[in-house]
Structure formats: C-alpha cells, structure tokens
Amino acid sequence: MRKYWSVVYVLALAILLVGCEKSKVLAKLFPSKIDGYKLEKVISGKKAMEMVNKLHGKKINAKAAWVAYYVSEKNPKEKVTVWVSEAPSAKEATNQVEVMMAKIEKKPMPFYHVMKMGDVYVFSGLGQRHAVFTRDKYVFWISGTDGSLRYFVHYYFRVKEK
Q1: Which of 22, 68, 81, 100 is most buried by its number of CB atoms within 10 A?
Q2: Which domain holds residue 116?
Q3: Cα gap 88→43, rounded to integer Å
C-alpha cells in the first residue's frame, strides 16, 4: 500500500511540473501586455488547432496551437491577433513557413506586397498587415496594423534571448 501511494505522489508531482512548465511557455508566448497592448483572451486546445488549420486551409503537422487576442490600451479599436502553432521541430517549423509563403507569393490574392525582412515575412491583405516567422519550433502569424506588428515581432525576437 505504501508503494502504491509513493507512485501516486511521484505521478502527481510529475503532472504538476509538466503543468508548471506549460504555463511558463504560455506566459512567454502570451504575456498580459506587449508594449501598450493588453491580452484579451487566449484560445488553446482543439478549438485553436481547428482555427490554425482553417487559417492554413488544411490540417498542418502541429503538436499544439494557440490564438491570442490583444487590444491597444490607447485605442480599443486597434487589435492584434497572434496565431501560434508548435511544430514537431524547428526544421519542420521553418519548412511550414517556407511552403506557406511560397503559396502566398505564387497566388497572392487575398495577400499582396510580400516582403522578407531578415527572418520575417511581412505582407498585406484582408484589411490588415501580417507578419509570419518562426522562433525555434513555433510558427507565428501576427495580424494587425503596421505599427502594432513592429511591437509584437520585436517582443517575440527578444523572448528567446531572455
């Protein structure tokens, strides 16, 4: 009986540690504020995966997905959406972005004015500006205004350094 409870305690501790690690990742991916924008909500799990697959127009090879909504504290009409998927590896994440951007560049509508600035693709469409890039095994698609994109791209490139 004692052995049974020892196993239960070890499993409970492992689950707690995994949960803590996941919440650290989520806190880095979606902080409560990014340069004057506050987090409204984060969608995760099956619903987020469905949303990300819909964004891609097909099912993608992802371990997890999230969609976060931010709003400007100065102008509540100014909103930013951050789509994130976790690929199985950094190489797969890079491949997913390259394939996606090749399709967008080949058939630009509804997207246009595609530019690559370093590791970030920036383009227009659907009434917004978009930035697409990878950080390790994470694929980011951020939609908002020109000004807001800058804050979010800078944030996600600084995160790795911390």
Answers
A1: 68
A2: 31-159
A3: 20
